[in-house]
């Protein structure tokens, strides 16, 4: 269910780097076209293709995230039929992200020690079986708030392994020069299928019954597994120079993130922003949905409103590669992160459907642009054989703080109301976004790229 929202998170055939670095093996031959002869007249540089295997990964990502969108929107709406307690709703939000806190480090080590495609296949297959069991419980009227929280918690476990595997697999499938484009397409696909299609679909399926809300995503997970198996042949396991203990890999991933001049500020800032944003969204339903709320949106209309976020995400994904060609990438990312806090205040100051709709579009665009740049920077500065464990360490912090934010929102919301939670989350977001601005500059990124042995041998 992760569609990173800042570094938020702070939200996939090797024709590219795998063919030259030797860190990944594949059964498919790399058929790069011969270089064109040099002439006196400059010719436009042709963009390297992303490749058919990346297309297969993108397709499976879309299918899996379509199911994500249904579950992400459907589970809280189902919960609203069971309770109006901020504490219980925040518990559901916490269950979504708690697996990252508990299993992020372990998941990263597993991804670095196994075939990344196969790890994603197994995670999605487990998700399909889990959701099918949940659908059966719903059809027999055995779905309670406790069961729903446990179901979402188990779903989050599958997300840890599926998401880490997908992120580590992208650099193995595309040329390094196209990472911005590839990551932009992945994030856009996630947002489109998750919110633009999945959210309104959840509203329609909920009208048919809770069993549909869980059964349809189960089918999507199964189809995604088939696409991965048929569309991405070969082996995608990072080569290891010598065997190491799993505990040593965990420590290495943590040390790498903590001491890295680029990763450390990104991860810490992203983690705090994620905590604040999760606190915000944990109670935003109560602020916006229902006759007793400040906005008064009907549940089915709220799902449609969420599609505006996806529209902004589409625009952001189309703009990212063009923006970073014309403007400093760090500057673009910092601006996108910096405007989030003021936009989070708009629903509090102007609690109307129209104002929230505009904010959703802008948040979708800025989140996608900022996250695409952040993800691409991380993939460039981290050696490929460390991508799994560093991603696990980073997301343990980045996603692990999110359940804490959700639980804090529930406690504060119960005691002093929803508005203080929303305003406080915006303030914390602004403070967190300022940290990397003062610590990571272009020279910092260049030095980190120069230290990456993959780039030296590419």
Automatic annotation (TrEMBL):
The entry's localization annotation reads: Cell membrane
Biased composition (Low complexity) is annotated at: 1-44
Key words of the record:
Cell membrane, Membrane, Transmembrane, Transmembrane helix
GO annotation, cellular component aspect: plasma membrane
Any idea what this protein is called?
Answer: MFS transporter
- Disordered as annotated region, ranges: 1-46
The record's section on Pfam families has: MFS_1 (PF07690)
Instruction: List the transmembrane segments.
Output: 89-111, 205-229, 266-289, 301-319, 331-350, 356-375, 396-412, 418-438
